[in-house]
Amino acid sequence: xxHNGRWALILGASSGFGAAAARxxxxxxxxxxxxxxxxxxxxPAVDALCADLLALGVPVRFFNANxxxxxxxxxxxxxxxxxxxxxxxxxxxxSLAFGTLRPFVPPPDSGAAVSTSRNVDMTLDVMAHSxxxxxxDLVTAGRLGRGGRVFAMTSGGSRQVFPSYGPVSAAKAAxxxxxxxxxxxxxxxxxxxxxILAGVTDTAALRKIPGNDEIREKARLRNPHGRLTTPExxxxxxxxxxxxxxxxxxxxxxxxxxxxxxxx
Length: 264
What we know:
The structure is a single chain. This protein is α/β, with parallel strands linked by helices. The protein is about 40% helix and about 15% strand. Helix 1 (about 15-25) links the parallel strand 1 (about 5-10) and strand 2.
């Protein structure tokens, strides 16, 4: 499909939900700006993703940099005129999964490392606060406005507890709060903001959580479809949610889980 003139900016674009969203949106004609942070060993997969997106006939530019950095935001925004002309960002997806998985207080006699103030601050900055800073800079630059769609990937950890998940849980709760506040403040600009709460999905980020085998199996058993959610399930919903008919849908946590939660 040829480029439809709309652009998607995906934070965390190289794998999981971000990569699936890039493919789905590019299939619908969106140009793709991706920000990711990968070591050299991960670059072949990133290069393959970019090649697939370009083969769909849309413009693509990826930045291998820390999406939570002010310098990265400046670099991406500075590159936009040459890439996009005056076009705005039609879809912003915040899908950053980088945080500390350590307990606040370790089990007795475990000798486990605990979450320090630096760990907690970093986790909240990357997984929650960076959404606010990207929106601020995009609005200031005139790149986000009427018709824009902002999505942030949250998780059940915003309400539930898991071993060693405290910093990430706090970040997800903060992220949902930021979504509500941004929905209020961007409404006069005609831009919607929603959080996406996917069902349990077998991603690299999930596999870093202690006890993830049990989490996945329990989710599979209670999901009425008899399987886990996939990144492609979520990406397909994001494409629909990015359309003009969702202009009155904002400030929500949208469960995209195949009924997993209602069967808990």
